[in-house]
Amino acid sequence: MEYFGNSFVGTSGVNGDRFYISTDGTTIALSDGASGAGKDGKVLMSECCIRNIEEAPFSKSGLSVEKYMQELIWKINNDLIKLSQQRNKYIFGTLIICVINDGVVTFASVGDSSAFLISKGTIKRVAKGKKTYDILVQLGLFTDEQIEEYVHSLPEQMWSMFDTFIPSVVPKYTLESYRLEKQDMILICCDGISDYLDGKELLKLISSDNLEKSVNTIIDKARDKSIESHGKNQYDDLTLVIYKL
């Protein structure tokens, strides 16, 4: 197995993203503190997530993957609630955790950071976080494309109103598992990247022979596309991890 991750601070000057790769390669995580939590708050959120994962690694848990994910997410959720109450400010954000065990990868996702599975030259987005408006799509009132168009016509600072975050009273997360084959890759990234590069674009920028170069190339490309989209020097924190079996 091989893996590489990197994180680049956005134009806010404070990086609210954190990523984690366990030394045994069984666990990968990415947390993205929300800008609405404030510069200090978004850092505290991500640090809380990663600290909990470091202190309770899957390899020492003795639990099934599903039970481990459940207990870990509830622990992080409760710690973030306590932190929010102590600071009298909502400390929140998004989280992805991946556990690789016995040739199977399991993703747990809260919010709009992205996870992709790359296999045999194809890329698939997995464990996509639920939006608060998903029920409208399920009822057939709108299509995904219509909702996305409407939401993105709003001022940018309002988009997060439709996302799912941690903590919540009862944490909601997407849980999915996939069997891995040799040479398969896992990619997880923050929305600062996935908002500007879709799966096909990401796949074109990945060289399986050089993960470090691939990660840094993708970060540079997402930054450039964000600047182009905004018409000024503006981009979010940019964080990406690639894991190759």
Protein model, in words:
The protein is an alpha+beta fold and 245 residues long. The chain has two domains: 2-129 and 164-244, Phosphatase 2c, domain 1 (4-Layer Sandwich), CATH 3.60.40.10; 132-163, no CATH class. It has seven helices and ten strands. A five-stranded antiparallel sheet has the order 1-10-9-6-7. Strand 4 and strand 5 (104-110) form a beta hairpin. The radius of gyration is 17 Å and the shape is globular. The model has no long low-confidence stretch (mean pLDDT 93).
In short, what is this structure?
This protein is α+β, with helices and mostly antiparallel strands and 245 residues long.
Defining key terms:
alpha+beta; 5-stranded antiparallel sheet; 245 residues; 2 domains; single chain; Phosphatase 2c, domain 1; 26% strand
Number of strands: 10
**CATH architecture of the largest domain, please?**
4-Layer Sandwich
Approximate shape: globular
CATH topology of the largest domain: Phosphatase 2c, domain 1
Q: DSSP helix count?
A: 7
Distance between the termini: 4 Å
Query: What is the helix content?
Result: 25-40%
Q: Name the CATH homologous superfamily of the largest domain.
A: PPM-type phosphatase domain
Order of helices and strands: EEEHHEEEEHHEEHHHE
- Counting structural domains, the number is 2
| Overall pLDDT metric | 93
Class from secondary-structure proportions: alpha+beta
**Arrangement of strands in the largest sheet:** 1-10-9-6-7
Low-confidence stretches: none
Largest sheet: 5 strands, antiparallel
Rg over C-alpha atoms, rounded to the nearest angstrom: 17 Å
What is the CATH C level class of the largest domain, in words?
Answer: Alpha Beta
Strand percentage: 25-35%
